[in-house]
């Protein structure tokens, strides 16, 4: 990407503070409204993050986050380390509940259901979402059992159902041809890239509504990364994907929409192409071109 | 000034390189290895040679006495001056010559002479200077008898007695008759008339003889056969002669059964405790206190556990069971005394910290990413533990079980209080209903070693058995461990294959 392609294009009616002031204002603790492009607003959101705040003990890490996640699209979260993008991702399926000191306010809605509502069955909720982690985490069992894990814990015993789900998920994760002859071998004997694709197969086996990916390629070599990226492109349409990534090229390659976060707040959120070629805000451009972060 | 400054810098840099630490740690390892190896070699050598048949010597001393028997050990000693002064001229001369040669010391041998009912002793020291010239021979027909009572008998056959009549006097003929009749139903009707070295004669009934052999006529193959036969008897037979002869089968059986019982009791309890501590409990000062207490428990002397086991398990629980179910047998206790179940429970308590600590370590070695992955799939905490955490930590848990087993199998002190006995009349597992008798007292190899070594009237005869029994106990622990390690390796291969 060449610098001349970027041209600042701040709408005249923008109510945002002066460009250089915005990050400073966030850093000083002010809550600055995000610049959310109209194209995002026009989409049908599957998940709506609304005025979401999260603290680890006394330390607040997410501030009034508003983020509609479009249905059937790939949405990327980018931003410098510690900006809260992983925390936001893990808030969607309430993985942060595992940490004792977490407190939240505001809400996240999955379709019409309030994720943080009273009496919500977290187990049931997590079954509606698949998650892929930064480090591949296959379970100490066979490849087949890894893939059908979500069904197993749900009590599915029918061998034919399990086999067909297993094959479908592995084909979906572009892994079937590599492992179809050793489904009963330990998953821990696979290569790193295969393990990560196995984790994706596991995440999509139960046909979740959402696929959450937390830097899924950061521990992979370039070839494995390419395969996973192709897989994400392939999954687009069937699944709503929310992906956290450190890698700007990756965000530009795989995502439809990109949100740029900074210190627990969303700065700008729009179609990936717009954000990478013609962002509204200078801060976004500075980050994308590597001038800070 | 500059030179001294540089040298001090060099001294520091040597330490910083860690070179001395390499040597120091290597030294530590070597010391440890040497000590362990010498112990193992000692046990092996003594344990393996005990059953090898030794030749029988007949020694005539200068004072005219004749002793016959096997040399069991020898030593040099520094004699009291009065000892030498009190000898007659000839012996004094021999003793002084030997002392001059041996730097003031004398050599003597301990001869197992047996024949206790005639001589009142099992062993006799024979000083080298006291042996008359040409006074040591190996009689061709010296026979060693291992008997059901009174210990060994050494002598030469003088006749074969059937009923009241003497039917043979030639040694070879007597020996043939013995071999023909020893397994007869009426073996008690026959006896070997045996002359001792001191000239006394005794008829030894055939059914009193466990084993007899002409020690100095044995070929190598016969010796080997005798050696294996003795091992076989040791492993499969009941003890005789206040445990100093015969086998230790009841002790092997008791040890294995007690150890397995202990493992079956301790592993589930330990694993559940560790699971709660590590997976469910909120980490805080309370869990820290519990952990410290568990570690302290590992430092409590084992005899204290024995006292607790006696008081709580035997007297309180066992007494309660007796009062409820065996009231008609009181005041004779059924459960209210030492028994194999109480011993297993006591040792389970003793080894609980080992299992808890090992399991906790195994659980904490399971990466959190695995747990998160399972939760993200919608698993509950218990599903996560059962399907992911436990399989992954199973090899570590097995290690804890192995350590506990090794610790428990070698423990003696608490067992003396809660059920291990010198001689148990019945095995705790037999063919009579209800087959397993958890209330019965039992024999244990560790206790057997203590009993042989320190409680035996005939301690010289029992001493070699200490080594064979130790060797056996080591072998059993090794076997149990090897079995568990093989299981662990299989599990580890199944659950934690490596990526590289």
Q: What does the model show?
A:
The complex is a heterodimer of chains A (293) and B (500). Chain A is an alpha/beta fold and 293 residues long. Chain A folds into two domains: 21-128 and 209-293, Rossmann fold (3-Layer(aba) Sandwich), CATH 3.40.50.300; 140-207, no CATH class. Chain A has helices spanning 19-27, 38-42, 85-92, 122-127, 143-147, 149-153, 159-172, 176-179, 192-205, 222-235, 248-254, 272-277, 282-288, and strands spanning 35-36, 45-56, 59-70, 74-78, 102-110, 113-114, 129-132, 210-214, 240-244, 257-262, 265-271. In chain A, a hairpin with a 2-residue loop joins β10 and β11 (265-271). Chain A starts with 18 loop residues before the first helix and ends in a 5-residue tail after the last helix. In chain A, 48% of the residues are buried. Chain B has 500 residues and is an alpha+beta fold. Chain B folds into three domains: 56-137, no CATH class; 143-230, no CATH class; 249-495, MetI-like (MetI-like fold, Orthogonal Bundle). In chain B, the strands form three sheets. In chain B, strands 6, 7, 8, 9, 10 and 11 form a six-stranded antiparallel beta sheet that branches. The model of chain B is unreliable at 1-5 (pLDDT under 50). Classes of the chains: A alpha/beta (293), B alpha+beta (500). The interface between A and B is medium-sized, with 36 and 26 residues.
Strand content of chain B: 15-25%
Total domain units of chain A: 2
**Overall form of chain B:** globular
Rg of chain A: 20 Å
User: How would a crystallographer describe the biggest sheet of chain B?
Assistant: 6 strands, antiparallel
Largest interface, chains and sizes: A-B, 36 and 26 residues
The CATH topology annotation of the largest domain in chain B reads as MetI-like fold
CATH class of the largest domain in chain A: Alpha Beta
Q: CATH class of the largest domain in chain B, please?
A: Mainly Alpha
The CATH architecture of the largest domain in chain A = 3-Layer(aba) Sandwich
* Strand coverage percent of chain A: 15-25%
């Amino acid at each position: 990407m060449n610098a001349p392609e970027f041209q600042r294009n701040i709408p005249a009616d923008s109510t945002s503070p002066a460009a250089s002031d915005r990050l400073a204002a966030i850093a000083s603790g002010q809550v600055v409204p995000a610049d959310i492009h109209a194209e995002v607003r026009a989409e049908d959101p599957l998940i709506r993050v609304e005025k979401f705040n999260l603290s680890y003990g006394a330390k607040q890490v997410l501030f009034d986050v508003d983020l509609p996640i479009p249905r059937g699209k790939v949405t990327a979260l980018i931003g410098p380390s510690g900006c809260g993008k992983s925390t936001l991702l893990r808030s969607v399926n309430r993985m942060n509940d595992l940490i004792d000191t977490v407190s939240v306010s505001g809400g996240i809605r999955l379709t019409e259901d309030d994720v943080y509502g009273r009496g919500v069955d977290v187990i049931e909720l997590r079954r509606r979402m698949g998650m892929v982690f930064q480090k591949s985490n296959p379970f100490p069992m066979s490849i087949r059992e890894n893939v059908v894990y979500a069904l197993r814990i749900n009590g599915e015993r029918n061998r034919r159902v399990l086999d067909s789900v297993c094959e479908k998920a592995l084909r979906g994760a572009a892994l079937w041809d590599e492992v179809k002859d050793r489904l009963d071998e330990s998953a821990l004997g696979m290569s790193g890239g295969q393990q990560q694709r196995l984790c994706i197969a596991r995440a999509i086996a139960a046909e979740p509504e959402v696929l959450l990916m937390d830097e899924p390629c950061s521990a992979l070599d370039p070839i494995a990364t390419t395969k996973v990226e192709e897989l994400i492109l392939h999954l687009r349409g069937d699944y709503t994907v929310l992906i956290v990534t450190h890698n700007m090229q990756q965000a530009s390659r795989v995502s439809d929409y990109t949100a740029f976060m900074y210190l627990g707040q969303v700065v700008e959120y729009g179609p990936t192409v717009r954000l990478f070629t013609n962002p509204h805000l200078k801060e976004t451009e500075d980050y994308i071109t590597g001038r800070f972060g | 000034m500059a030179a001294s400054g540089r040298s001090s810098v060099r001294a520091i840099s040597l330490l910083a390189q860690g070179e001395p630490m390499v040597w120091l740690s290597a030294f530590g390892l070597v010391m440890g290895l040497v000590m362990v190896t010498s112990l193992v070699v000692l046990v092996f050598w003594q344990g393996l040679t005990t059953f090898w048949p030794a030749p029988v010597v007949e020694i005539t001393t200068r004072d005219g006495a004749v002793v016959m028997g096997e040399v069991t050990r020898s030593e040099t000693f520094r004699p009291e001056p009065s000892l030498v002064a009190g000898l007659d001229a000839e012996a004094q001369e021999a003793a002084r010559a030997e002392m001059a040669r041996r730097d003031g010391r004398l050599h003597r041998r301990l001869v197992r002479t047996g024949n206790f009912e005639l001589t009142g002793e099992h062993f006799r020291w024979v000083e080298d200077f006291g042996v008359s010239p040409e006074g040591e021979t190996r009689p061709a027909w010296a026979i060693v008898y291992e008997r059901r009572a009174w210990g060994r008998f050494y002598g030469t056959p003088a006749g074969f007695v059937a009923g009241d009549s003497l039917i043979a006097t030639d040694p070879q003929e007597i020996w043939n008759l013995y071999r023909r009749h020893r397994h007869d139903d009426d073996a008690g009707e026959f006896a070997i008339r045996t002359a001792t070295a001191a000239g006394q004669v005794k008829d030894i009934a055939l059914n009193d003889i466990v084993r007899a052999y002409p020690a100095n006529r044995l070929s190598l193959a016969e010796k080997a056969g005798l050696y294996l036969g003795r091992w076989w008897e040791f492993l499969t037979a009941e003890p005789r002669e206040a445990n100093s002869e015969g086998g230790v089968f009841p002790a092997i059986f008791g040890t294995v059964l007690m150890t397995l019982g202990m493992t079956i009791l301790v592993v589930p309890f330990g694993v559940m405790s560790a699971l709660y501590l590590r997976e469910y409990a909120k980490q805080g000062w309370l869990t820290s206190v519990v952990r410290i207490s568990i570690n302290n428990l590992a430092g409590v002397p084992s005899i204290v556990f024995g006292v607790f086991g006696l008081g709580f398990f035997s007297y309180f629980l066992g007494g309660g069971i007796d009062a409820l179910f065996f009231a008609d047998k009181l005041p004779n206790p059924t459960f209210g005394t030492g028994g194999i179940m109480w011993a297993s429970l006591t040792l389970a308590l003793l080894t609980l910290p080992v299992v808890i600590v090992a399991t906790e370590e195994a659980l904490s070695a399971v990466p959190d990413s695995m747990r998160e992955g399972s939760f993200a799939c919608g698993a509950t905490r218990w599903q996560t533990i059962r399907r992911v955490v436990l399989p992954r930590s199973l090899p570590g848990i097995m290690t804890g079980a192995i350590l506990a087993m090794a610790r428990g199998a070698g423990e003696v002190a608490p067992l003396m209080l809660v059920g291990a006995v010198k001689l148990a009349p019945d095995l705790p597992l037999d063919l009579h209903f209800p087959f397993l008798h958890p209330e019965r007292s039992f024999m244990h190899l560790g206790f057997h070693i203590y009993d042989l070594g320190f409680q035996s009237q005939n301690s010289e005869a029992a001493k070699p058995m200490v080594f064979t029994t130790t060797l056996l106990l080591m072998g059993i622990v090794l076997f149990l461990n090897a079995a568990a390690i093989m299981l662990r390796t299989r599990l580890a291969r199944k659950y934690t294959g490596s990526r590289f």
